[in-house]
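Students often ask what a 'structure token' actually looks like in practice. Rather than answer in the abstract, let us consider Maltokinase, a protein of 342 residues. Its sequence is given first.
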Amino acid sequence: MSSINIDLGQAQWALEAITDGGDDQQFTQRLTDGQQDYLKQPECVQALLKAWLKHPAVNVHGDAEVVEKAIEHLKPSRGEQTNASLHTSSSMWKFYRRISPGTHPDVEIPQVVRAHVPAYQAHVSARIDGRDYTLAVATQLVPHAVDAWTIATSKDPTLLQEHSAAMGLALQEIHRDLKAGLEIGTIAAEELARLMHRRAEEHIAQAPELRPYAARIHASFDALEGMIPTQRIHGDLHLGQVLWADGWHVVDFEGEPDQSLSQRRALLPTAYDLAGLIRSFHYAGLGNPTALLEAYGRFDEILVNACVVDRFAYEVAYEKRHRPDWVAVPLRDADALFSQQG
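Now compare that with the structural description of the same chain:
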């Protein structure tokens, strides 16, 4: 199937195939009039929700009252986002622009983690060629929340510094629940290192600014040893994904948006999430989050160091591709990063 369409009058909703099929067939979700994007326009999205309730290929799951309220009272959410987010007084709705087959992490994880993650309320899926694709998810709205990146880069990041230990404890509890509720595994250090080496070479090819650090990047991966536990993790954790509202709440478990859904649901070392927060503190110019790491508890320091370096290389390549003016930001503390690792 190459597409599904619904004519809503002002705009047309469409799922358009962007890959050649197979087990990981992917689509883009669009709501446009051919020019303007309406996926953030409340009245158009409300009309889309009504149409979904009647479409034979679309299924609406979860709390029906949450869906009915969205049809009546959606408002756009602020901020630059890969997907489209809108909210009611009690729900946050996310509409995905790129969809893949399988259970979406934003549906699955809030039903497994007991605290620090907004509760699942509802979601919408499409049945295409015998497989389910998540189109949208509603989770509990965290009222009066401010993200940790905004705090970190404000004139007074005191709140973040005073509560960074609580962030580390929250992440430890999330990882514990994910380990207990979903699949776990192991990976040999040599195999993980090979994956990191390959990614690093790709990043260096994309961002020549990484070449002076290539030997030290690869040496960090060569230091890995033994069998390394793996499990479901956040996958793209940074301070922008952590909200403060009388405590820390972690959101957006969809992982790196450039990856397929199967890649984003892969089992990985929890060190990746720690590395994401460490590098986010570095981005904000706050140094290492010592209190956060101490509160998180025991971890493999060599593994975390390797994941920090892996994240560093990814960041430089990402900025080179998407925000060239920002390349200097991840590079500014590169020498200090490698000197800390000895």
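One point worth highlighting: The chain has 14 helices and 15 strands. Ask yourself how you might have guessed this from the sequence alone, and why that guess would often be unreliable.
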